[in-house]
Amino acid sequence: MGERVKSPTYSLIESYRFDGRAAHHLDLYRIADPAELEYLGLDALAEPGGLVLVEWPERGAGALPPPDWRLDLVHAGSGRRARLTALSPAARQAVERV
């Protein structure tokens, strides 16, 4: 990727390309109503092989498709602990292949 990743807190969406694939980082903290997502053009973000990461997905409940994965970050001492959970059949198959 080679570029600095910035928070989409104010822009709502930051998009990147890496290895010829698209990655979109959404921060929905400032979304008050899931209907607002209609104006963001989320349909255009869903491309094969792409990645869409969503912070505060509960703010988009009903307007976002079901997730394949859930990533939880929790404070652990002076660092953080990450837990990745496969939620969809495709994600579970990916885990089985590893």
UniProtKB/TrEMBL annotation:
Gene Ontology BP term (one): tRNA threonylcarbamoyladenosine modification
Sample GO molecular function, one term: ATP binding
InterPro entries xref list: P-loop_NTPase, T6A_TsaE
Keyword Repeat on entry: no
Matching Gene3D superfamilies: P-loop containing nucleotide triphosphate hydrolases
Subcellular location, record wording: Cytoplasm
Alphabetically ordered keywords of this record: ATP-binding, Cytoplasm, Magnesium, Metal-binding, Nucleotide-binding, tRNA processing
GO CC field: cytoplasm
Source organism superkingdom: Bacteria
Pfam families found in the cross-reference section: TsaE (PF02367)
UniProt cross-references to PANTHER family, sorted A to Z: TRNA THREONYLCARBAMOYLADENOSINE BIOSYNTHESIS PROTEIN TSAE (PTHR33540:SF2)
Family according to the record: Belongs to the TsaE family.
UniProt name for this protein: tRNA threonylcarbamoyladenosine biosynthesis protein TsaE
Organism: Mizugakiibacter sediminis
